[in-house]
Design brief:
Strand 6 and strand 7 form a beta hairpin. The chain is α+β, with helices and mostly antiparallel strands and 149 residues long. A 3-stranded antiparallel beta sheet has the order 1-2-5. Strands 3-4 form a two-stranded antiparallel ribbon. The chain has one domain. The chain is globular. Helix 1 packs antiparallel against helix 2 and helix 2 crosses helix 4. It has 4 helices and 7 strands; from the N terminus they run E-E-H-E-E-H-E-E-E-H-H. It is 31% helix and 22% strand. The longest helix is centred in the last third of the chain and has 14 residues.
Length: 149
């Protein structure tokens, strides 16, 4: 029987900073499309060598770890119920709505909307989301074992 492409693996996580244990996030395994998008951050690099016993060696890269974290989470997070206050209702009560608004079920958000929402997160929450992303996409985790083959 030929190989059959299955739906990407997904996993649900609870945020540790939520005492109610109601806040969750769902990540999916990256497809080749997301892998290529992630690699674009890492690919924009310049190297210069003039070795002769380690003379003029330089390396430039435009990627930073915060940008990489945002990209990884944005490419693979498909559901999250973190809420945010956006003004007040007519009765004076806080207007609460989802921070991350997903369109198509099972698909990541559009990048511009994700970047805006991501920027509102406290750093420790963002770090936890990236950790969850790496649990589903182990090749993206720092110090992950090299791929075989």
């Amino acid at each position: 029987m030929p190989l059959t492409l299955l739906a990407p693996l997904t996993q649900t996580f609870k945020l540790s900073s939520d005492a109610t244990n109601e806040t969750f996030v769902v990540f999916r395994q990256a497809t080749m499309k997301q892998e290529e998008e992630r690699q674009q951050l890492l690919a924009i690099q310049e190297y210069a060598w003039n070795d002769k016993e380690a003379g003029v060696v330089s390396r430039k890269s435009r990627v930073n770890f915060a940008e990489l974290a945002r990209k990884e989470v944005g490419l693979t997070m498909i559901e999250c119920n973190i809420m945010v206050q956006k003004g007040v209702n007519d009765d004076g009560s806080p207007k609460i709505q989802p921070l991350f608004k997903f369109g198509k079920v099972g698909e990541p958000m559009r990048e511009l909307e994700f970047v805006e929402a991501w920027g509102q997160l406290p750093a420790d929450w963002a770090n936890e989301l990236q950790k969850f992303c790496h649990e589903v996409n182990k090749d993206w985790a720092p110090n992950s074992p090299p791929k075989e083959g």
